[in-house]
């Protein structure tokens, strides 16, 4: 889903009102180490929901395999 910006509040709102409203609360979330996913807002939300947060290795796009593959398709 396209977001207007990458702020923590925008990502948290999208998670709650778009993802969880449709699919429910996930057991875990894997993200990169972007500022929006390491902010106190995001970590508090994840903690309150009881979701396990996992992060990928920095500068290692293979860890985000499916997302990086989709990005490659979008660029071509």
Query: Please, how many domains?
Result: 1
Secondary structure: number of strands: 2
How many helices in DSSP terms?
A: 4
Instruction: Identify the CATH homologous superfamily.
Output: Ribonuclease H-like superfamily/Ribonuclease H
What's the alpha carbon Rg, rounded to whole Å?
13 Å
Distance between the termini: 19 Å
CATH architecture: 2-Layer Sandwich
Biggest sheet record: 2 strands, parallel
Explain what this protein looks like in three dimensions.
- InterPro entries: Integrase_cat-core (IPR001584), Retrovirus_Pol_polyprotein (IPR050951), RNaseH-like_sf (IPR012337), RNaseH_sf (IPR036397).
- It comes from Plakobranchus ocellatus.
- One of its GO terms (biological process) is DNA integration.
- The chain is mainly alpha-helical.
- It has one domain: Nucleotidyltransferase, domain 5, CATH 3.30.420.10.
- Helix content is 54%, strand content 11%.
- The chain contains four helices and two strands; from the N terminus they run αβααβα.
- The chain has helices at 8-23, 35-38, 40-49, 65-75, and strands spanning 28-31, 52-55.
- Strands 1-2 form a two-stranded parallel sheet.
- The longest helix is centred in the first third of the chain and has 16 residues, at 8-23.
- It is globular, with a radius of gyration of 13 Å.
- 3% of the residues are buried.
- The model has no long low-confidence stretch (mean pLDDT 84).
């Amino acid at each position: 889903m396209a977001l207007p910006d990458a702020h923590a509040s925008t990502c948290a709102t999208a998670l709650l009102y778009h993802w969880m409203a449709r699919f429910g609360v996930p057991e875990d979330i894997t993200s990169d180490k972007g500022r929006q996913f390491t902010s106190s807002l995001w970590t508090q939300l994840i903690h309150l929901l009881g979701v396990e947060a996992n992060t990928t290795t920095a500068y290692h796009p293979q860890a985000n395999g499916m997302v990086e593959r989709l990005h490659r398709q979008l660029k071509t």
